[in-house]
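Cytochrome P450
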Amino acid sequence: MMTLMDIVLFCLSAFLALYFYCKYKFNYFKLKGVPHEQPTFPFGNILDVFMSGEPVGQYIGKLCLKSEGQFFGFYALTKPFLIIKDPKIVKNILIKDFHVFSNRHVHVDPNVEPILAYSLLGMKTPQWKTLRKQISPVFTSGKIKMMMPLMAECGKNLEKYLSGVVGQDIEMKHVANMYTTDVIATCAFGVDANSFSDGDNELLRYGRMIFPKTALQSLKTASYFLAPSIVKFFKYRFINEEVDRFFRNVFRNVISQREASKVKRNDLADILIEIKNQDYEESDFKFDENILTAQALIFFGAGHETTSSTISFALHELCFNPSTQDKLRDEIHTVIGKHDGLLTYEAVQDMKYLHMVVSETLRKYPLTPFINRECGEDYKVEGTEMLIEKGTPVLISQDALHLNPKYFPNPEKFDPERFSAENIRKIENYTYLPFGDGPRLCIGERFALLSTKLGIIHMVKNFKMVGNSQSEELLKFSRIPLRTAKNGVHMTCIKI
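Predicted structure tokens:
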């Protein structure tokens, strides 16, 4: 039987063992000569992020901008994360040597979290490649063009809604959320969400629940990418079980109704049905309900959240840059006039200044905290003495690139002219990565850009967006992984 002294000695021994283990692990970047923040026992740099009150992506980006060199080190507990700062090395990791960095560093356990494990976001090589090849046809330019009338109808509903709130304070992220929920519901699944008629419909409500809203939820979500050992121990979900159950039922009903009706809409639902009904040689990779639901849920969640944030940030900048807003409105009317008064797919593609506005919004407000990869084998970084060991997580901070004055002078200034035909050639390659790059480039990029542009068009065409007493010119951001304004994006619309 253990005495009190035995327990004290055991605890002291365990503490000392942990201390010296952490001290040994925290020498990793020092031995490699990589700049890094001093880690804190036993949390590494994770505690610093929590105490800062900032989103992890923004915090890491600021650390990178303060340091010199091609790399920066970050400890999540005792795990070293290598952050790549050099655009040439970024290119090698994302494209040239992609075979070494084909997987994301994320904890996946299908028994605990099937949605993340079976989605393109979390799936590993080689299964992700098979799945992406099957889903890619729904996102070709031809298919996106066919969705234009459906998106335009959602845009008209958005205009109608704004006409009813003229002169009032509106929270633009919420308004954009209703629009993007309707767009994705109708374009991907043939479902009429009617968010502007029913602002508390289930699709909208459960869609907001996909991503965390509190600091604790944000830490749990971030730990899937930064501290998988904690996830492995506590076995908590990435996606709320209630959310999983709701969307699983929705998508199951959509697919069964589509199969029964034999109606073809050439949307994501049709592609998922085709995948489900095909035979594959891979005996360990069957396209079951978990895989189909995972694609649908992640696409719905990530799509409506990122697009609505982009729209709200763009409108925020237009509020505080009225000359830019006027120039954009003039272009919209001019281009539509050249297309016989019709807002067509070709008309949207002809709006060059609109593309510049959206591009600058994505530069100034990168939506994801970082691009995440895992080194699959020992890798010698070209032109350096750096050896990245197999299993090392590698991060590429969009904040550290997009907000770096070396690549974008006066980076805090909103300046769409950076992306004019003349100036865009001056932007160094691989310093602008709003959707990532390489084989794991965001599959929904075309869809996101078109739905974003249409949302902005329908808001700016006949309304003037102005700030009000609730507006914050300098936005603060919440701690959730995807960039979101902490206090909302407030403004007032005036009918023109």
